[in-house]
């Protein structure tokens, strides 16, 4: 059994209307969730496939970090899917700086966050003092690097160029991968 703590205001999202979301997570991840709505503590117990069960706490954590349940459930689609968190607070000097750093990551009208998603193929959510990422290892790595560049003060244009480059690399690797079906190495 694993224990995950999520923010108070995310408990309703985790439970869902009439417990619908909670039941879906339990069925899909083959776990049982015991949610304490007083303090946000969630006990996750594997009741089926242990490998799927391992993703249970990650799904709960992802919802706690601002992801919609549908996005969090993408973690079950494939063994390679990861959930990662960038701590914005760690890069901020104070409350005002945290606000500024979050603003840099979100971008004008949410454009920077959207570009991170579009160019990496990952899901990206900024909530509280964290940036959450769900995707494959190369996708998560691209977003984490872009976020760290922005937090280190890199100009947005530089970060967009970096993301474009990574996008093209991933696309190119994807094409190569599909071009030679069945061959051991390419």
From TrEMBL:
SMART domains xref list: KH (SM00322)
Pfam families: KH_1, KH_PNO1_2nd
Record keywords, A-Z: RNA-binding
Gene Ontology molecular function terms on file: RNA binding
PROSITE patterns: KH_TYPE_1
Residue ranges of every copy of the K Homology domain listed in the record: 1-81, 82-155
Keyword RNA-binding: yes
Gene3D superfamilies linked to this entry: K Homology domain, type 1
This protein's record includes keyword RNA-binding: yes
Name the UniProt record assigns to this protein: RNA-processing protein
Organism per entry: Natrialba asiatica (strain ATCC 700177 / DSM 12278 / JCM 9576 / FERM P-10747 / NBRC 102637 / 172P1)
């Amino acid at each position: 059994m694993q224990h995950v703590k999520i923010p108070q205001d995310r408990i309703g999202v985790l439970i869902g209307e009439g417990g619908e979301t909670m039941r879906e997570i339990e069925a899909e991840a083959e776990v049982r969730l015991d949610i304490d709505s007083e303090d946000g503590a969630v006990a996750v117990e594997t009741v089926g496939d242990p490998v799927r069960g391992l993703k249970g706490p990650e799904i709960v954590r992802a919802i706690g970090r601002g992801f919609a349940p549908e996005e969090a459930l993408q973690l079950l689609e494939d063994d390679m899917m990861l959930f990662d968190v960038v701590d914005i607070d760690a890069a901020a000097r104070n409350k005002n700086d945290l606000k500024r750093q979050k603003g840099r990551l979100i971008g004008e009208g949410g454009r920077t966050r959207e570009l991170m998603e579009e160019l990496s193929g990952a899901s990206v959510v900024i909530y509280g003092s964290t940036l959450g990422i769900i995707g494959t290892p190369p996708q998560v790595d691209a977003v984490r690097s872009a976020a760290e560049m922005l937090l280190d003060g890199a100009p947005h244009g530089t970060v967009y160029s970096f993301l474009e480059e990574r996008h093209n690399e991933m696309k190119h690797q994807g094409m190569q991968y599909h071009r030679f079906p069945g061959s051991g190495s390419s």
